[in-house]
Write a structure and sequence with these properties.
By secondary structure, the protein is α+β, with helices and mostly antiparallel strands. A four-stranded antiparallel beta sheet has the order 2-3-1-4, covered by helices on one side.
C-alpha cells in the first residue's frame, strides 16, 4: 500500500516567455510512465505512491524541464506521509 500523496505544481521558466503547457504536458507524461496512480487537477497533479518512489520522480521531472530548455524550475510540493497507508480515494470518498 502507498504511504504518500504528493501534489506538485511545476512552473518552468521558459525561454523567451514561451507557453509552459507543453512543458507541463511533458512532466505529466513522466508521471504517467512511472506507473504510479495520479490525478491531474487544474492547478496541480497529485501522485499516490511511496515517498521513496515519488521524490526521485520529482527530480526527474525537474531535470527534464531544463533539458527541454527551461532556464529554471519552481516546483511547489505538498506531501502527506502516512506510514500505515495513504490514498486519494480515502481522503475524497465522501465527496464522490
Amino acid at each position: 500500500m502507498a504511504n504518500s500523496l504528493v501534489s506538485i505544481q511545476i512552473l518552468p521558466k521558459t525561454k523567451d516567455g514561451e507557453d509552459v503547457i507543453p512543458y507541463v504536458d511533458h512532466a505529466i507524461s513522466i508521471i504517467d510512465a512511472s506507473g504510479l496512480n495520479y490525478e491531474v487537477h487544474p492547478l496541480e497533479t497529485t501522485i499516490e505512491g511511496n515517498l521513496s518512489e515519488i521524490l526521485p520522480l520529482i527530480e526527474k521531472m525537474n531535470n527534464s524541464m531544463v533539458e527541454k530548455g527551461a532556464h529554471n524550475v519552481i516546483s511547489q510540493i505538498k506531501v502527506l506521509y502516512q506510514p500505515d497507508g495513504a490514498s486519494m480515494d480515502s481522503l475524497t470518498e465522501k465527496y464522490r
